[in-house]
Amino acid sequence: MRYYLMERWQPRRGRGRGRGSYSSSSQTQSNNFRPSNTSNHPTTRKPTPNHISSKINIKQDDNDLEDLPNLTGSCSYMCPVEERIQRERLRDLAIFERLNGNPSQSSSTLAVKKFCRTISTKDVRNVDLRPVLVLEDTLNHLLNVFGSKSQPFEVIHDFIFDRTRSIRQDLSMQGIVTGDQAIGIYERIVKFHIISQHKLQRNYVNSNPNVSPMHHLNMEQLTKTLSSLYHLYDQTRKPNPEFYSFYVLLHLGSDHQPTGESLSLWFRKLPFSVMKSKEMMFARRLLRYSRFGNYKQFLDTIDSEASGLQYYVLEPYVCDVRAFGLSCLNHGGYKLNPYPLVDVSKHLFMEESDVESFCKDCGLDTYTSEDGTKFMPAKQTSFCSPKGPRKYYPMVSERLKTLYDEAPEII
After folding, report:
1. Between helices 308-332 and 295-305, what is the axis angle to 10°?
2. CA nearest 314: which of 305, 147, 385?
3. What pTM, to 2 d.p., does this model score?
């Protein structure tokens, strides 16, 4: 079987967020759209070559750690007592951690351990690490906050973004590389990042100047969490095909963010059951339609097959695909036969009123006939792909319409 994408992803260069001991964390494809044993309980494993490689990656990713001794978390709270006391004294409490709104007072049911960028081996103690059951409870607490409407989404995201990194840090420091519980934690954190990306993207479209850095950092942590999750799948031999499909879908667009080997090599390493799963077949079809410039099949397939999370991953690319489709209609038509906007809307899965606005975003003119029908003339030379923050136009899809509801998501 041949695969149609052979280019290699290049690593993203840039500086991450520096953090002190307890500091807080505070797409566009325009014209490129063209032709092992399972355990139910976490265990500390003796490092294998693959495990060592993963540990090095995790070290470079989150922890900046030297080789750690075997550690087993014994902290029974979401935040170690010493850290909570220190942060109370420093008035370093997030708004969700304050007891009765007091910035210098918290409790064991509110405070959540912060991500620590720099950790010395000699300072790591079992009492500072949370066992997997406590980490599960902590994640449940954070995701309850995620559904809150009490604060702007950027504030909510910033809090959970930092605290989920701390959860991942505790898992890696204890060498937890197997177990259904660890897999469940990573999968839910992936969902958090995907849904956050969807929400941040919309806020970025509304030109919130504080959202763009969050948007890029969230994507960075999404790809790192996926990498750790795939390592867990390799250890447990219990892969979830939908989560593998995200890696493929994130390759769409000329400004794709994930790093790693080329897709053709990555495909060869996947289990046969994953390659033949409906989720992976869906992702590979979209990749093929993207490379061949088949915008109609691309949008049709999303409309008929995409899961909620897959659609959230794909959403940033839908605008680019629509722009390419509009370009094809404009350049492939006849001057004497303008397109009714109602027909264009069916091609692009958009409301007719949105098509008129989208044409303007792409530099194309429309007009209204005497009988009130709206048209887009063909062969216009003013077409240009939308640049910068773009207005969001939802897909017209009966099956996907529930995704546009802003009610709190259940993760």
Report:
1. 150
2. 305
3. 0.81
Q: What are phi and psi of 380, to 5 degrees?
A: -75, 140
- Between strands 374-376 and 339-340, the pairing is antiparallel
For residues 252 and 317, the answer to whether their CB atoms sit within 8 Å is yes
CA distance 379 to 264: 38
Q: Which CATH architecture has domain 49-313?
A: Alpha Horseshoe (1.25)
- 340-394: pLDDT as tens digits: 999 999 999 999 999 999 999 999 999 999 999 999 999 999 999 887 667 888 8
Cβ neighbour number for residue 199 with a 10 Å cutoff: 19
Q: Are 251 and 6 in contact (CB under 8 A)?
A: no
198: enclosing H helix or E strand:
helix 180-205
Structure confidence by residue, pLDDT tens digits, 24-82: 443 444 444 644 444 444 444 444 434 333 333 444 444 444 455 678 999 999 999 99
Looking at the domain that runs over 317-404, which CATH code has it been given? Answer: 1.10.10
Domain locations along the chain: 49-313, 317-404
Pairwise CA distance, residues 370 & 307, whole Å: 42
Rounded distance between C-alpha atoms, residue 170 and residue 181, angstroms: 14
